[in-house]
Amino acid sequence: MGSSSGQPEFDYLFKVLLIGDSGVGKSSLLLSFTSNTFDDLSPTIGVDFKVKYLTIGEKKLKLAIWDTAGQERFRTLTSSYYRGAQGIIMVYDVTRRETFTNLSDIWAKEIDLYSTNQDCIKMLVGNKVDKESERAVSKKEGIDFARVYGCLFLECSAKTRVNVEQCFEELVLKILETPSLTAEGSSGGKKNIFKQNPAHTSNASSSYCCSS
Amino acid sequence: MEGSRLISKKKCSPTDRPSLRLCKCALKHGPISVVYKVSTNSNGSVFFKKLTSRGPVDKKVIQWLLSLHQIGLDVNRTDRSLEFYEKKENLSKLWDILCLCLDRPRCRLCQGMSDLCSPMIVLLEDEADSFFCFERLMRRLRGNFRSTGRSVGVEAQLTYLSSITQIIDPKLHQHLDKLGGGDYLCAIRMLMVQFRREFSFCGSLYLWEMIWALEYDPDLFHVYEAHQCGSEKVEVSNGKPKSMSQCGKYERQNMRNGGKSTEGRLPISVFLVASVLKDKSSKLMTEARGLDDVVKILNDMSGNLDAKKTCSGAIKIHKKYLRKAKK
What we know:
By secondary structure, chain A is an alpha/beta fold.
């Protein structure tokens, strides 16, 4: 545990958000990434959250990954979680076309509306490639979408774990390449704006510093 | 409404649900393109050909189809750890009952309802009984799910939760507020699915029974019957004085306090959440340094809370709250 000595256990903390339609496998993707398992999961109500530590190069990273509910009804609730995210992963299900078309109809707009981070890295992820025979969205369409919206792109399967780690790693690498984002996420980063008393600031080495 | 007649004849089962894409398509472009799309998609195509051959598809029908699709998604992910749902016919029951509820006035499906419906199907053998129990439960909880586009009904309860915590455990509230959690959104799941995820299956059922017993009011039956589903909170006005001894403990506390105040109509679940938060207070105070930690601590307690303890905690907090709020 990080102590009050002010020496945190990581160099950077990044906030990553998972968004996309109901049932595309956001929670499964997260579970697959953080604990190498695949399980029958209940629909997410509101938000869920997981942490993953990564070491890239010599940098120790703490990823705070927020998993949001996909259903329309919860959108007003989840919007506040876009704040201060350095990375946003848009997930769709390659076997259900509407989850892909909703990305441009709904989710990309949500990002524009709620994301406070101009430089925030976006990533498009097509999940469930293990069901190749049921595929309804081609890889090329995914690539084209990513080009138009300026985001990274990967296809993966939370079930077989194909490309799961790569999803998050590519995103993180890109965040690390972006100076404005690394400045925010760095543990010695901004301590301003935060309405916290000084005794706590050394511990609050997170992006929440800039969220209030 | 040619279309809806056609649909209502159709028996719902998880296997032959229509593709959402087609529903959306119909909403956007009208029936012609639906027919076209149908010919390129095998999933649900026959059904859609039939549907659209009768003329334009009503918007209501499309909404209905979208809800059907959502039910399919939810049903396949509800309580899957239970052996009970390994049987396809049990899954179908859950599917059927949720579908039936779509036909009720002002009833819109929302994620979380399958969590509330599932125990009724597990416990009651007769499908009709399950349906009516679930339907009455929803009369009690419908307000939580009501959405205005800007907010969800349950948020009102979060506001009360905030004021309760401010009175009961001001330090915890300050701490949460400082971390950006003063809106208590992190507690939304507990209220929305009535602690189904925080307690074990049996634990949550035990808790539900306690809730119903503690909140019991002999007038409740009339309240639910007199108003169709979706109605707002109602004042009971049938004049005859009810005996306090008939009411549950929570309700009695409210009655002693004047009963009719806003707080009097607060469901006990808000105090249950307050009780859970109080229970985790020291952990939250010492370990939570960001909103992420708060959500993690609250989400990680899944399945290992004690229903009895939480209830008695809630009753204590309620008493204290009424006493302090009066001042």
